[in-house]
Amino acid sequence: MIALLGDAAWARRYADARDLAFGAFLAALFDHYAVALYAVIAAAAVVVFGLAGHPPILLLWAALLTAGFYSFVEYGLHRFILHARVLCRSPLTAPIWRRLHYDHHMEPADLTVLFADPKTSVPLLVVLAWAGAALVDRPGMFTAMIATNFCAFLYYEFMHSLSHLPNAFGGAWLKRKKRNHMLHHHLDEASNYGIGSNLVDGLVGSAGETTTTRSPTVRDLGYDEATATRWPWVRDGYAKKRAAGGVVVAGRA
Questions:
Q1: Of 50, 56, 110, 164, which is the most exposed, with the fewest CB atoms less than 10 Å away?
Q2: Residue 250 contacts residue 15 (beta carbons within 8 Å)
Q3: Distance of CA 104 to the CA centre of its chain
Q4: Contact by Cβ (8 Å): 198, 180
């Protein structure tokens, strides 16, 4: 039975997980309420689409649009939003950046921030669905884009979790994906922005092991002491989280 656990409860349950088989890995993912939510939204969109009698070809078009833009959206958001440090400059947006990315880079094995926060991911996916539907002005296209976008995000969560949770499955392709993401976290944060796809990284030369020298900002993303002195909200929030025991580290990351 799906547990629908929040961030902290899910992290505590799976902090000591070891070598999860494929079935156990999927069960673990869907125990998190956000993953279950994305799946429910995608399924509901398909049901609404079908009940409305829209032509099935629209689902194919939506899938093609989602797949075609996935690599560029993932790369662009990761590099130009999550690594830009713009959100740290306001007390209103600093907690969002902390939850979205800073905490995850400061401690990549912290399972409390492994999954995206639906308060930001759901609106983003809806906006992207609207943008895709605007390209194909047909009744039902927005609903179709909702279905395919949320399926794509489930794929993203699967691939991201695969890199951080110990598992006992996957061939060379999945292992290469995990290695690239670990390079992003532990060697050079300016490489391997793609998690589900390294297409754009490959095009711009940031895929794979681009350096052997560890970046000094691979953990703090350039939010150094000088930056924190000027805009302290991220630093202070993270310090409070650690002091309260809010970081739940996986046994192996």
A1: 56
A2: yes
A3: 10
A4: yes
- Other CB atoms closer than 10 Å to residue 53's CB: what's the count? 8
Query: Which parts of the chain fold into alpha helices (H)?
Result: 7-14, 22-30, 33-51, 57-77, 94-97, 103-106, 118-135, 141-164, 172-186, 199-204, 225-230, 233-243
| Spatial distance between the Cα atoms of 36 and 59, rounded to a whole number of angstroms | 21
Closest CA to 160 of 78, 86, 80: 78
How long a stretch of residues is the chain?
253
Cα torsion 55, 60, 63, 69: sign: negative
User: Residue 20 phi/psi, 5° resolution?
Assistant: -70, 130
Q: Which of 235, 240, 231, 236 is CA-nearest to residue 86?
A: 231
* Alpha-carbon distances, residue 202 vs 58, 119, 150, 206 (angstroms): 31, 31, 25, 6
The tally of CA atoms less than 13 A away on the side-chain side of residue 154 is 19
Binned at pLDDT 50, 70 and 90, residue 253 comes out as: very low
